Amino acid sequence: MQYSTLIDAARDYVMNMYQQHPRPDLVYHNMEHTKQVVQAASQIAAHYRLQEEELAAVYIAAWFHDTGYLLGEGKEHESNGAAEAGRFLDGQQAPENIKTMVQGSILATKMPQSPKTLVEMIVCDADLFHLGSKDFADRNKLLRQEIEQVYNKDIPATAWIANNITFLTSHHYWTDYVQTLSKQQKEENIDKLHKKLEKKSAESPSAAITTNIPVKEEKDNKEKKDKKVKKPERGIETMFRITSTNHIRLSSMADTKAHIMISVNSIVISFMLTVLVRRLEDYPNMIIPAIIFLTTSVITIIFSVLATRPNITSGVFTKDDIANKKTNLLFFGNFYRMKLEEYQWGMQQMMEDADFLYGSMTKDVYSLGVVLGHKYKLLRISYNVFMYGLIASVLAFMTAAIFFPVKA
């Protein structure tokens, strides 16, 4: 079955539904939101190795997840959307396992979310992807506007902000990809909400009482946060990325230089052994210059090879290494002998601990620098030997030719 055709049919079906059932009061749960969820689902799914039918289920569930708003009460929109997706898939004669995955994913988005499979986790994270994005403030305003229009009631700003703080604080993403990707921005969104609530509470202290979040408590929390040293995390990540890239580029340049020296001196040695050595009986005065030249080339090659010779560690780590943050899982030499499950566990532990993660990145950059320094040191010796040895060899050949000529 052509899954791409099925996905395209789902897209056209949902877009047609929104055209046939116009709901101008749905300023948040509209076609724009659905497209954003599909895009987020595509981004998340690309990080995982899904089967074709699993990927198709992710896309179809993302398209249908909010169609229930067009078919009845918003409180039952997940059930209505899952039923509508089932009718569509039956009409397309889709495999039963895809229908099961799609309906399960849509039902899993019901708050509180309850995904059990990776496909369901991806759809759930895509549905609330905006919580950890820069678009949160704009999307949040539309959601408030929609609720006020649909239920015909006004929501006090302080109550809305307080509820958002509670929701974002208790919410967690299900996939490790989104957890890592959205962590910083989500925390920034929560901080902005705290600032807004503090400002609103200062303007109207009585409103803080209605939201069950006292002004004094908010100020105390703000003071505690201000005492913490804020790390420019994006700047740090950029610094690590640029530094690692520069080290790798310099390492590649060093390898290229070493290969040049090896190639040149290999040609020199081949020439010496095949041509000049055979003529030494006729030109005994050239023996010492030839030995100097040959020795120079051999030593140059030795140091060039040492500069490019790989060196790796044991390739294993233990749980104690992870607990004590002693191993660097970003370097293949520390895990290439481990099983995939053990490596995934170690990476998960590292991603959940910011200090461990940044510490590993620091170790990785440091290790690259140490290796690079050793490599350039050997390469410098190789070039020095070649330069001074070449000078000595030329002088020796000139001396032998001028002062110790061969008599006919």
Automatic annotation (TrEMBL):
SMART domains: HDc. Residues 197-231 are annotated as: Disordered. The keyword Transmembrane helix applies. One of its GO terms (molecular function) is nucleotide binding. The chain crosses the membrane at residues 258-280, 286-307, 385-406. Signal peptide: none annotated. It comes from the Bacteria. SUPFAM superfamilies: HD-domain/PDEase-like. CDD domains: HDc. It is found in: Cell membrane. One of its GO terms (biological process) is defense response to virus. Keywords: Antiviral defense, Cell membrane, Membrane, Nucleotide-binding, Transmembrane, Transmembrane helix. Residues 203-213 have a biased composition (Polar residues). Residues 215-231 have a biased composition (Basic and acidic residues). InterPro entries: HD/PDEase_dom (IPR003607), HD_domain (IPR006674), PycTM_dom (IPR043760). One of its GO terms (cellular component) is plasma membrane. This is HD domain-containing protein.
